[in-house]
């Protein structure tokens, strides 16, 4: 084609130079416009994973076994939850600058900034409430033993035996936890397992009247709740 | 015989622009939002597993899940209590399936839906908890 039109083609070829310049201009301007659009699209998409990562990370830190709220993993102490608003900034300094809201079953625990919308992560937790129970068992007969009615992680044994009677040994589920040949007297904190029912047996030289043994323990009552962390980055 | 002809460069440029705009249109129409439900469901399943795994047993063994997974007899004895417990734990909009070596409790998950999974190893074998949106 170029060969056949060689005679007239010189003029056409010259005229193509401005057309080529316009073409390059069009392509480059379109490309740069596209870059702006793509950049904006990436900027908009990037926001949400950061929000989600922050919300998920904070929620995981709150329910973790090492959390300042937790008694163990996924079990939160009720009184520490109630005080979370005051302790949040020192416990989670990296999160306090965010716009966030922490709710427990729709009840707002912590709110920082003004989160509107944002990303929410929900976790299932148990809220543990501990109340102190005291029993004063009447120990008599050959087997001076008592079974704790509820499981707990520790029990405080207050011993005040009458004169002439010595309590030498305390066994929990047949394991010796306290022993003193001269006689146990006073308050003792005994760690017990919350996975098994505790049976406390005393080795006593005589009968123990009511009031000489006092057991204080703190069984946990738990209720289920949904912890929701909303972060609006 | 002069004919009105569009410059070849402009034709090439317009084809190029169409290519560029085709790519750009993907971003303008928006990328599909990623599905976050699997992560949330996995978190739910993990929470249920953690709670059950650290709960004391009703009768024997180390934990509640170990008790259920221990023997067929203990599974039969504990299944109703565990079912009540899990039903209380999971949010209302979820259904669940707890698989133990000796049987399952809960519901059968429909095929082709997103299911969150968590597995706990016990002395009796693995216990798998699956949850999905009802």
Show the helix and strand layout.
The complex is a heterodimer of chains A (233) and B (134).
Chain A: H1 6-63, E1 70-72, E2 75-77, H2 78-82, H3 84-91, E3 99-104, E4 107-112, E5 119-130, E6 133-135, E7 145-147, E8 154-159, E9 167-172, E10 175-179, E11 186-191, E12 199-204, E13 213-217, E14 220-232
Parallel strand pairs in A: 2-5
Antiparallel strand pairs in A: 1-2, 3-4, 3-14, 5-14, 6-13, 7-12, 8-11, 8-13, 9-10, 9-12
Chain B: H1 8-29, H2 37-53, H3 64-70, H4 72-89, E1 94-100, E2 103-106, E3 116-122, E4 125-133
Keywords:
heterodimer; A: six-stranded mixed beta sheet; four-stranded antiparallel beta sheet; rod-shaped; B: alpha+beta; 4 strands; 48% helix
Question: How would you explain this protein's 3D organization?
Answer:
The complex is a heterodimer of chains A (233) and B (134). With 233 residues, chain A is an alpha+beta fold. Helix content of chain A is 30%, strand content 36%. Chain A is built from three helices and 14 strands. In chain A, the strands form three sheets. Chain A has a six-stranded mixed beta sheet with strand order 1-2-5-14-3-4. In chain A, strands 6-13-8-11 form a four-stranded antiparallel beta sheet, with no helix packed on it. In chain A, strand 3 (99-104) and strand 4 form a beta hairpin. The longest helix of chain A is centred in the first third of the chain and has 58 residues, at 6-63. The two termini of chain A are 63 Å apart. Mean pLDDT of chain A is 84; it is low at 3-7. With 134 residues, chain B is an alpha+beta fold. A four-stranded antiparallel beta sheet of chain B has the order 2-1-4-3. In chain B, a hairpin with a 2-residue loop joins strand 1 and strand 2 (103-106). In chain B, helix 3 (64-70) packs antiparallel against helix 4 (72-89). Chain B is rod-shaped. The N and C termini of chain B lie far apart (75 Å). The model of chain B has no long low-confidence stretch (mean pLDDT 86). At the A-B interface, helix 1 and strand 5 of A face helix 1 and helix 2 of B.
């Amino acid at each position: 084609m170029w060969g056949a039109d060689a005679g007239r083609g010189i003029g056409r070829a010259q005229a193509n130079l401005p057309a080529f310049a316009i073409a390059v201009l069009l392509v480059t301007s379109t490309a740069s416009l596209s870059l702006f659009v793509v950049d904006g699209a990436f900027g908009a998409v990037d926001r949400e994973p950061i929000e989600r990562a922050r919300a998920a990370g904070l929620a995981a830190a709150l329910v973790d076994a090492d959390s300042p709220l937790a008694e163990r993993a996924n079990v939160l102490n009720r009184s520490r939850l109630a005080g979370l608003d005051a302790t949040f900034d020192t416990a989670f300094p990296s999160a306090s600058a965010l716009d966030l809201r922490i709710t427990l079953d729709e009840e707002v625990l912590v709110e920082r900034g003004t989160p509107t919308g944002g990303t929410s992560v929900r976790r299932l937790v148990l809220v543990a409430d501990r109340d102190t129970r005291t029993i004063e068992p009447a120990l008599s007969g050959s087997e001076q033993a008592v079974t704790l009615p509820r499981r707990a992680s520790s029990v405080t044994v207050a011993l005040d035996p009458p004169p002439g009677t010595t309590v030498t040994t305390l066994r929990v589920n047949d394991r010796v936890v306290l022993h003193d040949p001269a006689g146990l007297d006073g308050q003792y904190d005994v760690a017990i397992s919350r996975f098994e029912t505790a049976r406390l047996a005393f080795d006593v030289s005589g009968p123990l009247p009511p009031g000489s043994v006092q057991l204080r323990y703190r069984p946990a009552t738990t209720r289920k709740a949904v912890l929701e962390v909303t972060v609006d980055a | 015989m002069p004919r009105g002809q569009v410059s070849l460069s402009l034709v090439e440029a317009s084809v190029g622009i169409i290519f560029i705009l085709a790519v750009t249109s993907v971003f303008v129409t928006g990328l599909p939002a990623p599905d976050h439900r699997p992560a949330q469901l996995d978190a739910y399943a993990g929470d249920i597993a953690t709670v059950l795994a650290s709960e004391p047993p009703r009768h024997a063994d180390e934990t509640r899940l170990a008790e259920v997974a221990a023997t067929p007899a203990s599974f039969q004895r504990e299944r109703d209590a565990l079912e009540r417990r899990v039903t209380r734990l999971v949010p209302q909009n979820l259904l669940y399936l707890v698989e133990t070596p000796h049987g399952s409790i809960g519901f059968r998950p429909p095929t082709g839906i997103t299911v969150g999974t968590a597995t706990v190893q016990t002395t009796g074998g693995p216990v798998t908890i699956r949850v999905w949106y009802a």
